[in-house]
Amino acid sequence: MKWQTGNHRISRVLSIFILQFAILVPSLPARDVQWVTVEGIALMEDSSEEEARNRALEDAMHKAVGQVVGSNISVETILVNLRLSGSIVGVIPYGRVVDKEIIEEGMEPILRKGQAVPSLRYRVRMRAGVAEETTGTDPYFRVDASLNRSSFNDGDEMLITIKPTKDCYVSVFIILEDEKVIRLMPNRLKEDNFLKANQTFSFPDEDDKRSGIKLRVHTPEKKDAVTETIYILALEQPLKSNAAGFQEGIYGIYNGETAFMRDLIKEIIAIPLGKRAEKLMQYQIRKKNGGVK
User: Fold this and answer.
1) What pLDDT score does 268 carry?
2) Domains and CATH numbers, the chain
3) Which of 48, 104, 159, 198 lies 20 to 30 A from 166 at CA?
């Protein structure tokens, strides 16, 4: 598909960090925990050693969750669930680190490209026990959304309407047929993605349109029709994802250089189910000569 538009401080026992990132639950049966060995890294930059250690530990834990839970999720399963129930609640579970063993850690120099003097980074290598959950959603946190059409002709304009039930930060993605992901919002033109509870938001809105911004859909070359999916993610806190990995769906034509849905899932699975609400909407695009009105 082508898209185009117009114009921390923590103690050595890490009690504070664990409460923030992954609550220890030693009573869980061993069979519910999978162990992996991971490495976390954080550049010192302007931070203290303890702050860098904190970030390196967080990085390692996030990687552990992604390695265990992410490998158990099939994008096909998510889309099948969408077709059957229209919901993905529980399909993308929550993974948490419930136990860990530090293998080695410490500061080390690293020479980055263009540097004459090495920088310092903190590196942690650990074994982490990860458990996944598919319960604990917040029934009062939902995001309602709709498209102006479910079937488009090549070149048609799309309008996305979103209404959350709680104050939240909303991200909008497109899942292509090859499971690659394009990021629509936030973007360089709309960095503020905070929505108030029960506020109806449209993309593009009237201000966007007055600025010449349009959301046009296109079929890929050599295809007469495609089925794609809008994925809306509403969170209590902004999404801390590798945004650079997901190409923006603004300014010009999509060039295929973007991350896959499985990469996005790895960013989401460490977010508790009760702190997120999701919505998937499928639509079809046809060539004009074979399109349906």
Assistant:
1) 81
2) 8-133 (3.30.110), 143-290 (2.60.40)
3) 159
